[in-house]
Amino acid sequence: MVVARGADKSNLKSRLVTAVPGLADADDALLEQLLESAQVVKLDRDRFVFHAGDLCQAFLILLDGAVRVQLTSANGREITLYRIGPGGSCILTTSCLLSNEHYPAEAIAESDVEALALPVSSFQSALDSSRWFRRLVFDGFSRRLTSVIQKIEQIAFTAIDVRLAGVLLALDQNGIEKITHQDIAVELGTAREVVSRHLKRFESEGWVRLGRGQVALTDRARIEALARPAPGD
């Protein structure tokens, strides 16, 4: 982890306001105070931001890059809970800072990452004294919590082939073809063998074309029809 100081902070305020539009209404004096106590941290792609069991010592606001938050079971199966982009924060970090608990998951940099780190004392002081800071923290918390609950609902109540179709559409929309079956399994919270079996069926139907580390849609309309909830669902 690289910590930026001094001259590296010269344009931090404008970058922060750009990443988090809600900060445009912030109390300037408090914002300046937070920036004085903050550090800019940089992580390379594929580095861990947090390991399961880590003590949370800072509130992070992402300035650039993407972070994936995932759970790993005792047998090694992984599931992606959510991703954090510029301007975002991690609800598990917030929860740990509020409860003084250890981090229960893993956070991994999916690209080179730059983030603003507020030490615990500054976070708690701002939370106690500033209405806009509380709104910033808890608005982000509630939005992220809603997305996590929606994901749990999908895992519990939506058939795996329907969820797989949704992931394939998202990958296609983002222009991503090169992805392993294991990567898709992590997104879905299932076993790689399950993903491979369903993709083979999709291929036999003529809906996708499979290659080494590659999945391409060949019948988008059928994949969209599968991903679309049936009336009354």
Description:
With 233 residues, the protein is α+β, with helices and mostly antiparallel strands. It folds into 2 domains: 2-156, Jelly Rolls (Sandwich), CATH 2.60.120; 159-227, Winged helix-like DNA-binding domain superfamily/Winged helix DNA-binding domain (Arc Repressor Mutant, subunit A), CATH 1.10.10.10. It has 9 helices and 10 strands. The chain has helices at residues 12-19, 28-37, 91-99, 120-129, 131-157, 160-173, 181-188, 192-204, 220-227, and strands at 2-4, 39-43, 48-50, 58-64, 67-72, 78-84, 106-109, 113-119, 208-211, 214-217. A 4-stranded antiparallel β-sheet has the order 1-2-8-4. Strands 3-7-5-6 form a 4-stranded antiparallel β-sheet. A two-stranded antiparallel sheet has the order 9-10. Strand 9 and strand 10 (214-217) form a beta hairpin. Helix 4 (120-129) crosses helix 5 (131-157) and helix 6 packs across helix 9. It is elongated, with a radius of gyration of 20 Å.
